[in-house]
Amino acid sequence: MMRVAHVFEVLLLAMMPLLSLGQERSWEIGIAGGAVHNFRSPLRIQQADAAPIRLMADYRTEPFTPPIYYDVRLSSLKEEKGWELKFTHHKLILHNNPPEVQRLSITDGFNLLTINRLWQIKGLTWSAGAGIVITHPESTIRNKPFPENRGIFHKGYYISGPTVEAAVAKRYYFSERWFAFCEGRVTASYVQVPVVDGHARVTNAAVHLLFGAGMRLNKIKQPGTEN
After folding, report:
1. How crowded is residue 225: how many other Cβ atoms within 10 Å of its Cβ?
2. Which of 75, 110, 167, 217 could serve as 106's disulfide partner, Cβ 3.0–4.6 Å?
3. What is the per-residue pLDDT across 23-50, written as a single tens digit (0 to 9) for each?
């Protein structure tokens, strides 16, 4: 599992050299959880010397069952525009398994890593962006389990395909630096993940509802002021 603390460390290390640039720019970090609705979407499983399996897949996410669904982001804003680096630990568990599929899940997870453009308009933060999906597939197809000790660093992770997203969020500041937020988001992803003797092509379209908290990392220097 990609732990929240490890994700925070990666985001902070990636952005620390930039925190000293542009003192009129705000830098914020946030963490959230929530719920997801996955729309039915095409699934195709192809194995060598076997007929392909095709279906309209129905996925569960089970956001509060470990490993839990979570989201972390690092954002920067200046003059009501900005950028955001976001990592979402999404999960997919096939619900309407055909007889040939004993198990197909991507729970460790169906991770969305995106870069997004931000716009603040009338008290709301709108965003849109794109990125990659990092998967950890777990499957048993035709009674053949897929080994989970392959992939990146032999940890079972794969860079599997692209994702796009759009979102709108509302922030509620309760101190100079701390805030709570809620966000509605739509995502669309297409990946190819390995199974024994073949691969599965997974399409996912989902609506996410998130609630979280964040912190401003720096004080904003106003134009014309001295240090």
Report:
1. 8
2. 110
3. 577 889 999 999 999 999 999 999 998 9
126 strand-pairing partners: 119, 168
Query: 146 CB contacts (<8 Å, ≥6 apart)?
Result: 137, 138, 139, 140, 194, 195, 196
The answer to whether residues 203 and 168 touch, using CB atoms and an 8 Å cutoff, is no
Q: What is the chain written as a DSSP string?
A: ---HHHHHHHHHHHHGGGTTS-TTSEEEEEEEEEEEEEPPEEEEEEETTS--EEEEE-EE--TTSSSPPEEEEEEEEETTEEEEEEEEEEEEEESS--TTEEEEEEEEEEEEEEEEEEEEETTEEEEEEEEEEEE--EEEETTEEPPSS-SBTTTTBEEEEEEEEEEEEEEEESSSSEEEEEEEEEEEEEEEEEETTEEEEEEEEEEEEEEEEEEE-SPPPPTT---
pLDDT grade, residue 136 (50/70/90)?
Answer: very high
CA-CA distances (angstroms) from residue 140 to 21, 63, 82, 107, 200?
50, 22, 43, 14, 12
- Name residues whose C-beta falls within 8 Å of residue 155's C-beta, 6 or more positions apart in sequence: 136, 149
The predicted structure's pLDDT at residue 223: 46
Single pTM value for the model: 0.86
Measured between alpha carbons, how far is 37 from 60 in angstroms, rounded to an integer? 8
